Amino acid sequence: MMKRVFAIGLLSIIGSFSLAQLPKDTLTYYTLDKALSASPDTIYAIDLHRERLRSVPPSIKKFHHLKGLTLSKNKLEELPAFIKSFHDLQFLYVEKNRFSHFPAAIFYLSRLKHLNISRNKIGSIPAGIKALQKLEYLDIWDNRLTRIDDGLTKLQNLKFIDFRGTTFAPSFVEKWTTAFPNAQVEFDAPCNCLE
Question: Which domain, by its residues, includes 12?
């Protein structure tokens, strides 16, 4: 068993931002082996990070009550369609994989509060993002963003967004900072480049 307390790990990243405003992941995460040896109804979080996965094991389909799923630091290029069936999922960690596009299966996770999809190769945030109405934390740091759909502005529960890793023009930064007056929006220093 592994306890993951998200707020502690974030202290060095967000400095003075109030941690009380961020969703806290205090779920108990199980490895897949331990989860498979238990009743599926008793497992709420699975940790599959650093497993060198090229695909998500279909055996996790049986855990219908998942609230947390860690797939970070693997070799995933897409998420399987069955991810859509995790209707209770609130915390999804898919950072440091090989996604070149935003996985569409994520848009079906209507209870998602925390999404870390940083350090991939994603070029855009598509319109489907507006389906994630409960999202409070979005980390898309260090991707290859060239386009962010205006659908993102529909997510008025967002409290933290990390766009660092791409340099945008001052007008672009102002647009997104203004769109979320009650959120901490992180950008790298603006340049006289991408509008």
Answer: 2-150
Residue 162 falls within a domain, yes or no?
A: no
Reported as a single tens digit per residue, the pLDDT across 99-121 is 999 999 999 999 999 999 999 99
More confident residue, 177 or 35: 35
Q: What is the pLDDT of residue 124?
A: 94
User: Around 152, how many Cα atoms within 13 Å sit in the side-chain half-sphere?
Assistant: 24
The CATH number of the domain holding residue 82 is 3.80.10.10
Considering only CA atoms, which of 99, 108, 51, 49 is closest in space to residue 79? 99
Give residue 21's pLDDT band: very low, low, confident or very high (50, 70, 90): low
Residue 167 lies in a domain: no
Domain total of the chain? 1
Residue 45, H or E segment: strand 45-47
- Of the candidates 116, 119, 153, 163, the residue with the CA atom closest to the CA atom of residue 137: 116
